[in-house]
Amino acid sequence: MTNARDTILGRLGRPGGDPAAAYARIERRYLDRHHDDGLPALLAERVADYRAVVHTVTAAELPGALAAALRPGTYVIPPGLPGTWTEAIGDRTTAEPCDLEAVAGVITGCAVAIAETGTIVLDHGPGQGRRALTLVPDHHLVVVSAAQIAADLPEALRRLDLTRPLTFVSGPSATSDIELSRVEGVHGPRTLEVFLT
């Protein structure tokens, strides 16, 4: 007789197995895609609902839009970020490693974005930097291409490498106390700007 723990571990795969393959084997009886069209517009709407700033720009407009969004101070550029994105910024950037408390913000890419929930997912690969890079600076500028937008969470999970460290970002960092007084910037950037290309 097996217990619930063995049943769950059997479905997910044993240690050393392929988590993505185990995820794919799980039978699902629910709708895993609620939208087929208009994903960039839906993502923009949902991201804005979280009090994030959304910019819809072309690839040619992106460098100028990023430069215009900068605040006073230095911005961190993670390794692997396309140089064309920051060509209009000049000497206002620094590379990793650096003192994250001394910088104004960070410019990153992402692994995937989820239109239904307005969530940006970072797997800390090229152009995204280490996890602390997107949690310590006060201003996070993130670039999302239309090809990176998934309709819903199940589709996003299929696109991700589940063995990598994942950070799900739904708007600027915020928390509320028991009296529902909202405080922003407690566990991450106070300002999130998303650039949809």
TrEMBL record:
Q: Which Pfam families match?
A: LUD_dom (PF02589)
Every copy of the LUD domain together lies at: 106-196
- Reading the lineage from the top rank, the first entry is Bacteria
PANTHER family per UniProt: LACTATE UTILIZATION PROTEIN C
Protein name per UniProt = LUD domain-containing protein
What is the species listed in this Swiss-Prot or TrEMBL entry? Actinocorallia longicatena
